[in-house]
What does this fold into?
Amino acid sequence: MEMIVTLKIPDTTAITAYKTLREMGFDNLKTLRRANFYHIEGDVKEEDLKKIDVLVNVNKNEVQFKLEKKEGKHYVLVQDKEQGNGLLNTLHKLGLGIITKIEKGTLWVLEGVSKEEAIKITEELLANRHYQAYKFL
Amino acid sequence: MGKPSIAVIYLPGNNCEEETLRAVIANGMGGDIVRWNQEKNVHDYDGYVIVGGWAYEDRIRAGAIAAKDPIMHAIIDQAKTGKPVLGICNGAQVLVEAGMIPSIKEGVKMALAPNINPLISGYYCTWAALKSVQSQSRCAFTKTIKEGEIILMPIAHGEGRFMTSDASVITELESDSQIIFQYSTRTGEILSQFPTNPNGSVENIAAICNKQGNVMAMMPHPERAAFVCQLPHTKEKMDAAGNLTLMQQPALAGKLFESMKLYIEEGL
It folds into this structure.
């Protein structure tokens, strides 16, 4: 299953990225949002995932389990090619052995730019393609 | 020519500027901490050090935002004239993300990726042995460091693994002698396994220079090993125990700054 975790407080990383992109000349970029994106495997319920505080801080985050895409926006998932076992090991140490696999990425949502511009934005700032991969959802 | 004057570049979130300036001054140069948003004319300086820390909080990834900071345009221009630019730790990440390493003209050809470490995921700090693997004349920061010399410096990073998805980059680094320091044992063996290679860097790379030899990106911290009092329990430190004067003497890592001074005065 997929879990999308967004900030309900101001996202300073997205704000900084937006300002940097505007200074780089991407004047059409209207909004830039960011979420932590998790792909999770295991016999675990959505309600239980929301309670895992290394993944979700209820004071700061909102959680969705389905990506609802809107017209005019590009959804770009950036992930490290090598995920490692750090996060899974942490969850197991917390007693969550029922989670058998977890992969993390950053989901960027771009509004106001064409697909070609969204690709350029991703390749020039949002991802380092030497160790990260990206795909449009 | 008077003393060379170095701009120690401080980006928001860096934290190594004071000790870097101290190491610059202790090795015969003058300098200023130059904030990213100062009006001061960056072009007036003879060389630049981009220091360690967490510039822009490592937002997006380490060095990504800092590489786009307007002050980097000025530093890139000055590097093209041959002035020396040293990037330490976060500074190295900035140089890689700005495309200045491995070469100024060719875009982003590498990454400083998350460490691969069997003990710990994420941030890791330890003392590392660096072996100089090029001749003294290859790089602005090794003019006083003999090939084969081993220098202890601390590392403290979570994203210090030099890597590239383009194998031809490594071939070119090797053929152009751009790999300046490699992680080694204290006796000089370059072993690819942990702990000799503390972060999984390809070819045990600890520092890379650009083709011209005036820009270098290094993950270890020479400013944290530039004086005897900063060293771990080595013979040099033990011999200086109880003697404040000896403790304040320059240590081997200070030679990077000494070399920078010589490069400014004499060239390569």
